[in-house]
Amino acid sequence: MAAGIRLEQVQKFFGANEVIRKIDLNIEPGEFVVLVGPSGCGKSTLLNLIAGLETLSSGHIHIGGAQVDDTPPRDRDIAMVFQSYALYPTKTVRHNITFGMQTRNIPKPDQEAAVDEFARLLQIDQLLERKPGQLSGGQRQRVAMGRALVRKPAVFLFDEPLSNLDAKLRIEMRTEIKKLHQRLGKTVVYVTHDQIEAMTLATRIAVMDDGSIRQFADPATIYENPADLFVAGFMGSPP
Ligand code: ADP
Ligand code: MG
């Protein structure tokens, strides 16, 4: 199942610094929303607020219709993939992926089946008995995605997941992520500073600047009808 996400006047201060400036945002179930904007504009902070890794200064967040303002990350129906994918170096790939599951109530054979299913989907089923040190960067990123996928959450949050990969792999993984979204139909919020990634992946793009969303629209609208000069300049279309 996919879940919608609703942000209501979401505000975040770090000390006296207002990093997120009362943002309203409504994401439909199954959407692929890409957050773009220059470095330091608040993309990661906004994602971390949705994940529950940062606390709100004010405002409200709803996931799947439930208010989650005080819900700890593990009880929000989400999984997050970061740029730096911390895998356990001494554990096998299978172990690393299994770790993503809340295994307490899941019988062992079902755990194994889930790992096998997603390993096949991510084309790492031949690598399950290896250790992370025996994998390429792209393969490691697939393992990190596998670990997020096996939780079968309603929402996926990605923070620049491809920025450590070389150009060729980045394009390959971009295509994979798009296919996965089409196949699984989960809600995705995806942070990047790469305009091409945004244009190819998003159902809607939120262009951020200095803690605010300047425009939230589908890629064609952003490109053809930028709301202001900032959006036009950032997304590389003529003003
Ligand atoms: P982005 O992901 O768009 O590059 P961030 O959300 O990481 O931006 O950062 C937004 C602003 O908040 C920056 O000015 C950054 O320095 C500041 N910031 C981020 N995290 C913290 C923190 N834990 N403490 C203080 N300031 C922070
Ligand atoms: Mg960031």
From TrEMBL:
<dbReference type="GO" id="GO:0140359">
    <property type="term" value="F:ABC-type transporter activity"/>
</dbReference>
<keyword id="KW-0813">Transport</keyword>
<keyword id="KW-0378">Hydrolase</keyword>
<protein>
    <submittedName>
        <fullName>sn-glycerol-3-phosphate import ATP-binding protein UgpC</fullName>
        <ecNumber>3.6.3.20</ecNumber>
    </submittedName>
</protein>
<feature type="domain" description="ABC transporter">
    <location>
        <begin position="5"/>
        <end position="235"/>
    </location>
</feature>
<comment type="similarity">
    <text>Belongs to the ABC transporter superfamily.</text>
</comment>
<dbReference type="GO" id="GO:0008643">
    <property type="term" value="P:carbohydrate transport"/>
</dbReference>
<dbReference type="GO" id="GO:0055052">
    <property type="term" value="C:ATP-binding cassette (ABC) transporter complex, substrate-binding subunit-containing"/>
</dbReference>
<dbReference type="GO" id="GO:0016887">
    <property type="term" value="F:ATP hydrolysis activity"/>
</dbReference>
<keyword id="KW-0547">Nucleotide-binding</keyword>
<keyword id="KW-0067">ATP-binding</keyword>
<dbReference type="GO" id="GO:0005524">
    <property type="term" value="F:ATP binding"/>
</dbReference>
